[in-house]
Design brief:
This protein is of the alpha/beta class and 345 residues long. The chain contains 18 helices and 6 strands. Among the domains are: 116 residues, no CATH class; 82 residues, Arc Repressor Mutant, subunit A (Orthogonal Bundle), CATH 1.10.10.10. The strands form 2 sheets. The chain has a 4-stranded mixed sheet with strand order 1-2-4-3, sandwiched between helices. A two-stranded antiparallel sheet has the order 5-6. The longest helix has 18 residues. The chain starts with 12 loop residues before the first strand and ends with a helix. This is ArsR family transcriptional regulator.
Length: 345
Amino acid sequence: MLQLTSRKRETYNVHLTYSLLWESALGIAAITNKKLINTLERPEKYWGEIKKSISDGLLEQLEFVEQNNTWKSLLQILHQREFKDLSEFIIYINGLQETELRFICLPFIGKDYQNYREKAAQGEKSSVEKLVQATANNSFFPTYIEFISQCDIVLLKEHLIQVMSNWYKEVLERDVAETSIILKNDYEAKKKMSNKLTPEELVQWATGGVTYAPEPSVHHVLLIPQYIYRPWNIEADMEETKVFYYPVANESITPNDKYTPNNFLVLKHKALGDEARLRIVKLLSEENRTLQEITDQLDIGKSTIHHHLKILRAAKLVEIVGSKYCLKKGAMELLFKELEVYLEK
C-alpha cells in the first residue's frame, strides 16, 4: 500500500508513580483473592501467618472485601489524586458526598457509558442495569456495580477507612522501610529507562512483556510498581488512561548487587539458549506460522515444538495472533536494550 502521509503514528504518554497506599490496597486485593493467591510469589504460609497475626476487626473487614470486591473501590479512590499519606486519604474519603463516592467507586468502562455511570451513582436503576449488562463478561463487575449502587454509603466509608488503615498499620508497617525503598528503586529505574525507550517499549519492559498498542481513546499509560502481587501484572482502565500495576524487578529488591539481572532478562536468554528455539525464532522473524507449519519446516515432533513454543511464550518473546504464532512486536530489539542497561550498571 502506498503511504501518502508523513504523519507519525500517534502513541500514548507514559507516567510513573509509586506509593505505599497502592501497596496497601493491592495487598488487600491479594489476600482476599482465593483463586489467585496460590499463584503469587509469596508462599501460602506467608498469607496464613498474616491472617493469624491480625486483629479480629481487620479479619472481619477483609471478609467484607472478599464478599463485595471493595479493593476495587480503594484503587478507584487512589486514582483521584496523589495522596501524601494515609491521613490525607482518610480525610478525602470523609469529605466525599454520597453521589461522588458512588461515581468514583463505579468502574470506568468507556466514554459511551459515562452518562450511565453518573446516573447509576444517583441511584437510577435502569442505568445500573445498563452497566451490569455491559460488563456481563467480567468475573466480578456486575455484582460489584450492583453493590456500589445500593450500599449504605456511611457504612461503605467506614469500611474503606478501617480496612485501609488497619492493613497499613498491622501488615504494611512491619516492613514499611524496606518496601518503600524497593518501590522507590523500581520507580527510579523505570524513570531512567524512559529516556532510552519509546513509550510502548517502556511498557513492555516494565511489565515483562505486555504489548500495549495505542488505542484511540487512551492518551496516557500509568505505570505503578508493586511488590505484594508479584509476579502478576494487574491492568485497569481509567478515563483516557490505561493503568498497569506491574511487579518490581529483582534488581530493585537487591539494589546493592549490580550483578543481579532482571528476572525477565534471564527468562528471555534462557529461552533463546536452545538451537531448536532459535530456529523457531528465525522462522517467525520471516512470517507468522501455525504450529503445523513450524513442525513441517523443522521436521521435529509436534509435541516437542509445542513445548519449545510454550517456553518462548513464557519469556514473552512469542505470542499467538489468530491461529498463528508470531514474534512479539519489538521483543528482540528491546532485549538488546535490556542487556545494554544491565551491562552498564
